[in-house]
Design brief:
The protein is 54% helix and 5% strand. By secondary structure, the protein is mainly alpha-helical. The longest helix is centred in the first third of the chain and has 25 residues. It is elongated. The protein starts with 24 loop residues before the first helix and ends in a 35-residue tail after the last helix.
Length: 622
């Protein structure tokens, strides 16, 4: 079979422009402006989650978007940032301020630049190591729990802003922010509460009744008009900090912050990649090339690395803005370039206007955007598959709420590792029988029994003797109890080789087999641990008068196996054969003398003496 063509995303810069038609340009420009109307105000709102000046959210819509457009494989993905990433950034920077005393504004911005560059470097290293598929093993249950803890933490953190309270906390965790939310009820500003209620109602109403309209832009514009002409600032409504006009400046990372930020950068890198790939697949058109995880590692990593030198929030693909671009008809990453240009124009020309933006309006935008992360339907869906997944989602949520989101991500990764190891730690062997169509899986596996066999292998009590006459209609592998044919269902790893070997030995004991054929065509790679375990199995079988044959060894695997003295000995003894049928005659050789022809040749070409039932074959390893 011919090798599949490489993903289109690997064919140079701007892969989504391959085969691009100029007639699509008008649609992409309009889609970019439409997406920008959502992305720009939302990114500024996310900056407040990270406890940063709003312009750093605006800057996140510039370089990262252009870099992703040059490297990414999704046509509609909008690469700015998300509420999850902003919340993790807030937690990281608060922790750094506590450890290193980096609490002043300049030190905080340099720490942000360091964190974002670190995230980019980690993702690029993962790309070099081709870890895209591995990182994706983070379970859906884990992500559900992380998103829920993020949504609840961010939502609680917006309460003081929506009430007009003076005290606000960001990045301190769910419990401290919950306390701050309760205290905020003693410091309520009526005008701010009214503005918040109107903003929330408008966001929900517009998104449900007119989903194609940019609800965040409409609400932000209304808040600015109310502050400019409605006199609400005279009634105690707080505005965002003044936004400097112009483009971002170059900010160099501070190496002294690297040791403190490494754990946070790892958590953010994992979440940024997972969110981006999930969104890219969600908004992918069926006619588009499949999303390549390694290519996305490169694109997301480069977006954060380049953007980090302008102190942006680590880049990630957001679903709401990507969905807007998709609905607007996005056909390429020209959409992201247009959105980035829009952000540049806003930073240069509209900064004085943005100074009139109420904090409560941004708080409303954040609240609506993040409450969707707490999806009860996802928790309910987990119960239909496996209750253990529900408990993993609940546990991840609780860890994130009680111990912090970084701890929640770490707990989620560890739980995912547990799930992967649990799934791998299962025997990968099945019994085959000879049916009308050849060798096929047997519906009935041998049962263990009491009586010791002639080979000296003991058996479990309370089961039927498989060597008894099965009757004329029996087609199970036990109809010839001297031969047992097994097949590997999948690859053997360190995690599953021991259970597989133990299961094999159990099946041999149950069948009183004198010859075992192991079909290994499912293996295309092998480790020294697997070889050692198979050698131990061969030794154990040989001690009990049973010979092991291997068949279906992939030609590409043979050079690696020949590094083992054991495998070379197997080849020399003719116990590595091309087909199961080639060993079937040899499998009947160890029968008692009256049913065996003395000196009959095996498939290896060696003579098999007329051994008794308790005597190991002459060709068995010592």
């Amino acid at each position: 079979m011919a090798a599949p063509a490489p993903p289109r995303a690997l064919r140079g810069l701007f892969p989504t422009l391959h085969g691009y038609r100029i007639a699509s340009l008008r649609t992409d420009v309009l889609a970019g402006l439409t997406a920008g109307a959502v992305v720009v105000p939302q990114a500024m709102a996310y900056a407040t989650i990270a406890d940063l000046p709003v312009q750093y959210g605006l800057y996140t819509c510039m370089l990262p978007m252009v870099v992703y457009a040059a490297l990414g494989g999704s046509r509609a993905l909008s690469m700015s940032t998300t509420s999850t990433i902003a919340t993790l950034v807030a937690t990281s920077l608060v922790g750094l301020s506590t450890v290193s005393g980096g609490g002043d504004s300049e030190a905080r911005i340099r720490a942000l630049a360091t964190l974002t560059v670190l995230v980019g470097v980690m993702l690029l290293v993962a790309r070099v190591l081709r870890l895209g598929s591995l990182v994706q093993n983070i379970s859906h249950a884990t992500l559900t729990g992380i998103k829920a803890s993020v949504g609840l933490t961010v939502a609680v953190g917006q309460v003081p802003k929506l009430l007009g309270a003076r005290e606000t906390l960001h990045g301190h965790g769910f419990v401290p922010e919950l306390r701050a939310a309760f205290r905020a009820f003693s410091d309520v500003n009526g005008t701010t509460v009214l503005l918040s209620v109107v903003s929330l109602a408008a966001l929900v109403l517009v998104s449900r009744v007119w989903p194609r309209l940019p609800a965040p832009l409409i609400v932000v514009t209304g808040g600015i008009l109310a502050a400019t002409f409605g006199g609400i600032t005279d009634r105690g409504v707080s505005l965002v900090s003044p936004i400097p006009a112009g483009l971002p400046t170059i900010v160099l990372p501070r190496l002294g912050d690297v040791p403190h930020l490494l754990p946070a950068a790892a958590a953010i890198a994992i979440m940024a990649f997972l969110e981006s790939v999930a969104v890219a697949r969600e908004v992918r058109n069926r006619k588009d090339p499949r999303i390549d995880p390694d290519q996305e590692l490169l694109a997301v990593g480069a977006a954060s690395l380049v953007g980090g030198f302008t102190a942006v929030i680590p880049a990630a693909g957001g679903f709401s803005q990507s969905a807007v671009a998709q609905r607007a008809g996005a056909r390429s990453q020209v959409v992201s370039v247009v959105t980035a240009l829009l952000a540049v124009l806003v930073a240069i020309f509209l900064a004085p206007v943005l100074d009139h933006m109420p904090e409560a309006t941004l708080g409303a935008v954040v609240l609506v955007a993040t409450l969707g992360l707490v999806d009860v339907r996802e928790f309910r869906a987990l119960t239909r598959f496996d209750m253990s997944e529900l408990w993993i989602a609940v546990a991840t949520t609780l860890v994130g709420l009680l111990s912090g989101l970084l701890a929640g991500v770490a707990a989620g990764v560890l739980m995912t590792l547990f799930i992967v190891l649990r799934d791998l730690d299962r025997p990968q062997v099945e019994v085959l029988r000879h049916g009308p169509g050849g060798w096929e899986p047997s519906p009935d596996e041998p049962l263990q029994h009491d009586a010791p066999t002639a080979g000296g292998i003991s058996h479990a009590a309370g089961t039927t003797d498989p060597t008894s006459d099965p009757g004329p209609t029996d087609t199970s592998p036990l109809s010839d109890s001297s031969l047992l044919v097994l097949r590997l269902r999948g690859m053997l790893y360190t995690a599953n080789v021991r259970p597989t070997v133990e299961r094999t030995a159990q099946l041999v004991r149950a069948a009183s087999a004198r010859t075992v054929v192991l079909e290994v065509s499912a293996m295309d790679w092998v480790s020294s641990t697997v070889v050692d375990e198979l050698e131990d199995l061969d030794d154990e079988l040989a001690e009990n008068g049973c010979r092991l044959f291997l068949t279906g060894v992939a030609p590409a695997l043979e050079p690696r196996l020949r590094a083992s003295d054991w495998f070379r000995e197997l080849e020399a003894q003719g116990r590595v054969v091309s087909t199961i049928d080639a060993v079937e005659v040899a499998g009947r050789a160890p029968h008692p003398p009256e049913t065996t022809t003395p000196g009959r040749a095996t498939s290896s070409g060696a003579d098999v003496p007329p051994d008794g039932p308790g005597t190991p074959s002459a060709s068995a390893p010592s």
